[in-house]
Amino acid sequence: MKNRYLNFLLVSFILTAVSSVSAQEKAGPVFKDGEAQIVDAFNNPKEWIRHDLWVETEFDTDGDGKPDRMHVDVTRPKQTETEGLKLPIIYESSPYYAGVATDVPGLFWDVNHEIGAEEKPRVHSNVIRKGKRPIISNSQVKTWVPRGYIVVHSSSPGTGLSQGSPTVGGDNESLAPKAVIDWLNGRAKGYTTPDGNETVEAFWSTGKVGMTGTSYNGTIPLAAATTGVDGLKAIIPVAPNTSYYHYYRSNGLVRSPGGYLGEDIDVLYDYIHSAGDDASKAYGNRMIRDTEMKNGMDRKTGDYNDFWAGRDYIHDLGPMKAALLMSHGFNDWNVMPEHSNRIYQAVKAKGLPAQLYYHQNGHGGPPPVSMMNRWFTHFLYDIDNGVENDPKAWIVREYDDKSNPTAYADYPNPEAKMVTLHLQAGGNKAGALSTKNPGKNAQEILIDDASFSGDSLAALPASAHRLLYVTPKFKKDVHISGLAEMSIKLASSKPAANLSVWLVSLPWNTDKKAPITDNIITRGWADPQNSKSIRTSEPLVPGEFYNLTFDLQPDDQVIKKGQQIGLMIFSSDNQHTILPKAGTELTIDLNETSLKLPIVGGENAFKKATH
To answer: What share of the chain is helix, strand, coil (3-state, %, to 5)?
Structure first.
């Protein structure tokens, strides 16, 4: 009897010890130096739980009389199922997961016509889905699941297996991710099928969500944040389109994004409309593309209007509560760098936590993983790592690796001051660009010819098709930081004309492998017909002078000793604008034309570099 009792005690002790060890060995997030670390228990993809579902929204954009449902996938560590572990979410949404339409001839608008002319109809293209995969995407998964996050994806309205119609910046593209975040917080319904009644709950979610993504995928986090949805704590948009007017227009001018000459908002609609049956697609085409977009986009004048205002997120920032880390490239001529700067400045003015990461390359390019990790660790795990007190701006210097940005107090650099530079006669070859005022009654003429690219014009020693004004050769490095401002007084020989302005670093590097920072510093475009208002065009009276003032794209660049800055003024830009027949003459009044350049150290630094 005594032995049986001892055996019982021994067995009880062993079970208790095993239970205690098991409890101690439950997996959880690990933090070091303010960052979430990779946890071995979360790092086996074979053990991850992956499933998909449909979240019900509050809108109906496919005309079937029922709320649209968004297709969502989830990737989470097994411990969220076996150990009751709850984790925060990294969420990415996109219209691209199911592919895009093919580039059929005539899909893009034909830009070879006079400005303001009636354009011939373009060809529509349909997205042909090649698969029915239930899991939407693998992006973000390998980075964040091992670090103790759950990764969620969703296809935006009218794409992939999501219901509804794309609107390219309409309200449903803000409300769709809001619904997913509401579901992650138990406030919206999720279903196992697009049309059934069996529900799914996010029992593994802490309710704290961070969003990220690049390009359109970077626009959607901002769109979600403008709803003020509870639970969305932080967003990291990468090269986001923050205003479709700024993407397809510039200061009243019809301007294509770089690499997509002739694209417009209705072309992008066709590109992404991959979801739905024939009836729902026809409804979306009729209501969105062929009515709302057709009536609002106005390719004839390029004017700003209520249609474009409704697709500009800067007007919707009132409810925003999420912290913002914005990322962009200064040489992104697809989604121009102004898109991130304008939102960063507005969000900072609201008093929300905001930081800006800029690199010197083109489209895309997220911040270093360590920077993103600190951001998400603080705002999703409430770890006090001091990220909110880090420098506001992180700039990757020329030739530095993108993982090694230089910290600055803010952007633009607080030490940058505007230096006003004037134009001296001689622009068909190379007039001077200096702080000195030009001579009296100085006027110069350029003749539009879109057969010459901006690159070729900048490299030519002389040309009738552009005006070029150049600083002295720098004896010291010159650091530009911020938005250059162009003020120009001009007359046109025709009632309409393009105006293009490039700021270039000279001598022009003609090597095909030239670094992206070697030639173009920044650019700008404007419509002289909008000299009084961006909302109203007025035909130009040939020979009459008009004054325009507009910003060039933001930049932060160090122009090296031995280089010169050149201001190039020309008309049609064959990479971006409508391309009329050659021959329009623009006359520039040099006395009333100037460039304000944001230089670190101001006029004193400029004089030291040029004297």
So the answer is: 25, 25, 50
Q: Which residues does 40 contact at the CB level (< 8 Å), separation at least 6?
A: none
Question: Both tokens of residue 12?
Answer: 């009880």
Q: How many Cβ atoms sit within 10 Å of the Cβ of residue 250?
A: 26
Q: Which residue has the tokens 């899991």?
A: 135
Is 332 a catalytic site residue? Answer: yes
CB 422 within 8 A of CB 435: yes
Q: Which of 73, 182, 332, 556 is catalytic?
A: 332
Helix boundaries (H) for 185-309: 216-225, 244-248, 265-272, 278-284, 294-296, 306-309
**41-88 per-position pLDDT tens digit:** 999 999 999 999 999 999 999 999 999 999 999 999 999 999 999 999
At 267, list the tokens.
């072309």
HSE value, Cβ hemisphere, 13 Å, CA-based, for 210: 26
Helix or strand (DSSP H, E) at 182: helix 172-184
Residues 6+ apart with CB under 8 A from 417: 598, 599, 601, 602, 603
Token readout for 248 is: 């397809």
Query: pLDDT band at residue 516, thresholds of 50, 70 and 90?
Result: confident
Of the candidates 246, 339, 359, 363, the residue annotated as catalytic is 363
Burial of 461 (0-12, 13-18, 19+ CB in 10 A): exposed
pLDDT value for 19: 37
pLDDT digits (tens, 9 = 90+) for 388-442: 999 999 999 999 999 999 999 999 999 999 999 999 999 999 999 999 988 777 9
Please tell me the pTM assigned to this model.
0.94
Whether 533 is a known active-site residue: answer no
Q: How far is CA 539 from CA 130, 269, 301, 495, 587, in A?
A: 49, 31, 10, 5, 16
Q: Which of 283, 285, 309, 286 is nearest to 296 (CA)?
A: 309
Annotated active-site residue 215? The verdict is yes
Residue 441 is predicted with a pLDDT of 75
pLDDT of residue 135: 85
Q: Which two tokens stand for residue 483?
A: 């938005």
Q: Which residue has the tokens 């060890």?
A: 21
Given 215, 274, 481, 572, the catalytic residue: 215
Quick one: angle between helices 172-184 and 216-225, nearest 10? 70
